[in-house]
Design goal:
mainly beta; 5-stranded antiparallel sheet; globular
């Protein structure tokens, strides 16, 4: 079960991919979620077993976004939680998947920025918080300052990954803004578009 967002993408051959952060605990505890994807052919007749892109544990991962290029080639962006003293900070991370339609995909992960995009538990980021412990999060985003769920992800005309994301709740308020980055080297997930 995805915490809040399950993004989808279609590759150049029509295969469909769904990326999600899988809740390991009952609602409203979203801590420790891994990032996974599943795929199906264009007819959607049969779905693959889940493929783990980023292992769960600790604060976990949230908000996966996905783009697809050539068959089995994917770029994903998501936040990875890191415990820093008594605080949890969330850092923008990307993963590139090749051979994604096989039983042994190749996955390479990179932290995009050392600037914390947000702070708090995964549940707080997803708006599952409550002022009254007996209500188990039913205020869902009205009582807590939930994160931005959807941010930008696309492939450029040269088939390089481009993402944008918000930075808020940073200890250094001067860093709070919308950030963007575009891949300038390395492997692309598809051939250059005409």
């Amino acid at each position: 079960m995805s915490n809040q967002l399950a993004a989808a993408a279609v590759d150049s051959a029509g295969n469909v991919y769904v990326a999600y952060d899988e809740s390991l605990n009952p609602y409203p505890n979203y801590d420790g979620a891994p990032v996974k994807y599943i795929w199906a052919g264009s007819d959607l007749a049969k779905w693959s077993r889940p493929v783990t892109v980023a292992a769960g544990g600790g604060p976990g991962h949230v908000l996966p976004h996905i783009v697809a290029g050539d068959p089995g080639k994917l770029d994903l962006a998501y936040w990875t939680g890191q415990q820093d003293g008594s605080d949890i900070h969330w850092y923008t991370t990307i993963a590139q998947v090749t051979k994604g339609l096989t039983a042994a995909p190749s996955i390479h992960q990179t932290r995009v920025s050392n600037i914390s995009a947000d702070t708090g538990t995964a549940s707080i980021l997803m708006g599952a918080c409550s002022q009254d412990p007996g209500t188990a999060g039913i205020e869902n985003g009205l009582e807590c300052n939930r994160s931005a769920d959807v941010w930008g992800i696309a492939l450029t005309t040269n088939c390089n990954l481009s993402i944008s994301w918000p930075v808020r709740n940073n200890a250094n308020h001067s860093l709070e803004a919308t950030y963007a980055t575009t891949q300038v080297s390395g492997t692309s997930v598809c051939k250059t578009r005409p």
